[in-house]
């Protein structure tokens, strides 16, 4: 007698995404090949306009990755060598790594373990006369309250660079009932189009959004060796240009993004309903007025040390892929050993690193898949 294994449930399905786009992707790539313009050019310019308009920003500048978007934007904002830049220790390493790579000093404030977002009540206390800017991370697809953050930073003359690598299409409603997206209220915003993002390329890609024409101009020059005209260089820059083929792929996918994000929110609602009242599984809180992009659906597995890892292993045995984003905080990484931090400095971040588990939530799951995952989590968590 043979036993039928349950169908695997993966964290994403790029093959299904490709199928939904149909022949448009191939046609877009053929259009670029026929044009003979493979780096920057009209395809990139068109995507810059379209994505900026989608997010509500005035300007978009395509770059080669999300990390480069952070680095180039900080330079355009006037980052000084040795200056302090605030961010959080519970995020992908690039958020802080880009600060250090740019010659500045990453300075951390803790996150709220119920939301995984920067604690604004700790920002003011962390500022000093060496601080020049803040990089709030819109983790998992939820937006930090940027107007509230700027109420703290503007009187100090600091810039705010939003890390929107996981926040494509995410929104938040202000006191007047108007929804804004990442890139509207910060001095600039950095996006990644890595293939696994809600809006992903067929390779690497990134973009800087800003409302400032001056910042956009500076960013555009810095990404192209400081070029102001062919063979004329007004500053020292780098090579961080978005490829036309990636822009073409992203232009095809962008019109699908709202529907894909809506599907993610439907799955999230099923998860929230399933976990409501559980004493062992706690979904992260969604702040009122948030239109969450749910790049990840994160829960905290409560209980003894190792409970999260035990649940993850139980899911894997049933063919369910659940990931830990992130198992080790930035401030205790080997690369951060000279930044002046150690274990215990940021209890909220460290709690999440012990407890967080991200469940499958891509738009091509069926409702039954979500129910199966939720049941497996609750059973394993006890």
Primary descriptors:
alpha/beta, PyrdxlP-dep_Trfase_small, 37% helix, transaminase activity, Aminotransferase, 382 residues, 2 domains, Aspartate Aminotransferase, domain 2, Aspartate Aminotransferase, domain 1, single chain, globular
What does this structure look like?
The protein is α/β, with parallel strands linked by helices and 382 residues long. It folds into 2 domains: 15-109 and 117-254, Type I PLP-dependent aspartate aminotransferase-like (Major domain) (Aspartate Aminotransferase, domain 2); 256-381, Aspartate Aminotransferase, domain 1, CATH 3.90.1150.10. It is built from 13 helices and 15 strands. It has helices at 14-21, 24-35, 41-55, 66-76, 94-101, 120-126, 146-153, 213-222, 244-253, 257-275, 307-317, 347-355, 367-381; strands at 59-63, 84-87, 105-108, 131-134, 159-163, 171-173, 179-181, 188-192, 206-210, 227-229, 232-233, 281-283, 290-291, 297-301, 356-359. A hairpin with a 2-residue loop joins strand 10 and strand 11. Helix 4 (66-76) crosses helix 5, helix 4 (66-76) packs across helix 8 (213-222) and helix 10 packs parallel to helix 13. The mean pLDDT is 96.
